[in-house]
Amino acid sequence: MGVEARYDGVAGEYDAWVGVELADPVFEELVGGVAGQEVCAVACGQGREARYLASQGAVVTGVDLSENLLAIAREREEADPLGITYLQGDAHTLDGLATESFDGVVCYMALMDIPSLDRALQSIARVLRPGGWFVFAITHPCFKTPATGDLVDHTNNTIRRTVGRYFDEGYWDGPGQVQPALPIGAYHRMLSTYVTELNRVGFVIDQLREPPLDHKPVWLEVPCLLYARCRLA
Asked: Beta-carbon neighbour count of residue 26 at 10 Å?
């Protein structure tokens, strides 16, 4: 099995881990009203964000490399039809999707898993109509680096996040420590790399979000996730 199709072997475990329903108010706020819009969910996995978008009235196409994750998505669509079309495809090319065919694109917690950021962004820009929007969420590139750890201050028991190797861009296995059975390593990139590549293919960043999370004390001190809403200039 190639690295790019690594979720095929663990689709069931991954689905059980992340759950069926998408519950992310920050993502929902950035997406906004989508009724009547044509929206593509890139790297849609088992279809959580695709189903959310369709429930809000969007006409949704979901694309993912993993046929096994798509099989789960299609089973849910068959059981509870929302009119979603699921296609097997590579985020680097989005082959089979026509140029300028979508009002919006989302890529939820997957852009950091895609090997070539520039190719993926070029493809996303290609399938968007002029002025189209792009919303993504990723693990925060400043605080989820190849060398991280949490420290407890011995004087007052506060928790701090330590980071290192920020400039070492490339693949790393660190995120997999959360669920070692799953192949969820990621491609670390500097924040400036994301901004530069977005601008290079024609995106303007309209909004950024770095919300605190309460599932772990350190994520009340520094952000775990980074969200962005962009548009084609």
From this structure: 14
pLDDT tens sequence for the chain (233 residues): 344 567 888 889 889 888 889 999 999 999 999 999 999 999 999 999 999 999 999 999 999 999 999 999 999 999 999 999 999 999 999 999 999 999 999 999 999 999 999 999 999 999 999 999 999 999 999 999 999 889 998 888 889 999 999 999 999 876 555 665 566 678 999 999 999 999 999 999 999 999 999 988 999 999 999 999 999 98
Assigned token pair, 218 = 């350190």
Under DSSP, the state recorded for 144 is S
On the CB side of 86, how many CA atoms lie within 13 Å of its CA?
Answer: 26
| Extents of the domains making up the chain | 3-232
Question: Which architecture characterizes domain 3-232 according to CATH?
Answer: 3-Layer(aba) Sandwich (3.40)
Residue labelled with tokens 């590549």: 197
Structural tokens at position 103: 């009002």
The DSSP symbol for 93 reads T
